[in-house]
Write a structure and sequence with these properties.
Elements: H1 2-17, E1 24-32, E2 35-43, E3 54-58, H2 74-82, E4 90-94, H3 105-122, E5 129-134, H4 136-147, E6 154-158, H5 169-177, E7 182-187, H6 195-207, E8 212-217, H7 225-228, H8 234-240
Parallel strand pairs: 3-4, 3-5, 5-6, 6-7, 7-8
Antiparallel strand pairs: 1-2, 2-4
Helix pairs in contact: 4-5, 5-6
């Protein structure tokens, strides 16, 4: 499995970041009164005058903590170290605190404040801010996209679901997301997050005239992110999107 994963990562990175040396993952802090939160940011080698995009990666429930350091093991660590950390973009890696969810008001403020700090510090491109989330982070993608419409240039939800808990959870979400380009991935045999979550989000976005693509993997469970790592066109597609 490890050799297979390394091979998949190698093929994917070749299509996006050939010839680039790896940058640096650094720690930062952000305040949401009265608390202070740590987060990580990947700072790629910067050359030329082009403003770099920002990718916000929202981890799953097992990576929650209080240190502001996304663990080096599991899905979040693999993606952070071998995947996101080698693309031509600034990668923001917030950490959801224990017992909380991305949709909690304090977590929302923490992420949005960290994003504002990151854009200011690196002179990043506000028109190219992207959301990627896995599992609980996939729910987080839809929370932020709905709570902050027209702020993000594209969305990638991996085994996620609607963060709205009342009324028509999917239609309300789709109306808030609007025409923001979105790609969803889910394993058909997921026993943790029902595949119906992604299916109904897609159905609602399509019904509201949105811009969505969906891929469902047969005979795949909750670890669908391993399959998504092999999607060679995903990052090139993501980096092409921008707000008008």
């Amino acid at each position: 499995m490890q050799k297979q994963l390394i091979s998949v990562l190698g093929n994917l990175l070749t299509s996006v970041a050939a010839g680039r040396r790896q940058g640096k993952i650094e720690r930062r802090t952000v305040r949401v009164a009265p608390d202070e939160f740590g987060y990580q940011v990947y700072a790629p080698p910067i050359s030329g005058e082009e403003k770099l995009p920002v990718i916000i990666f929202l981890h799953g429930i097992r990576e929650r903590g209080s240190g502001g350091l996304v663990p080096t093991a599991g899905a979040a660590g693999t993606i952070a170290q071998h995947y996101l950390a080698q693309i031509p973009a600034i990668v923001l890696l917030p950490q959801c605190r224990e017992g909380s969810y991305w949709s909690d008001p304090v977590m929302d403020a923490m992420v949005t404040n960290a994003l504002a700090q990151t854009v200011e510090e690196f002179g990043a491109d506000w028109r190219r801010v992207y959301l990627i989330g896995v599992s609980m982070g996939g729910y987080g993608v839809w929370h932020f996209a709905a709570a902050h419409p027209k702020k993000f240039a594209a969305l990638v939800s991996i085994c996620g679901g609607s963060s709205i808990r009342s009324g028509d959870r999917f239609d309300a979400l789709a109306r808030q997301v609007g025409a923001t380009p979105a790609r969803l991935f889910h394993g058909a045999d997921d026993s943790v997050v029902p595949v119906s979550e992604s299916r109904q989000i897609v159905k609602a976005i399509e019904a509201n005239g949105g811009n969505v693509e969906y891929k469902e993997y047969e005979n795949v469970g909750h670890n669908v992110w391993l399959n998504v790592l092999g999607e060679k066109d995903l990052l090139p597609w993501l980096l092409r999107q921008r707000l008008s």
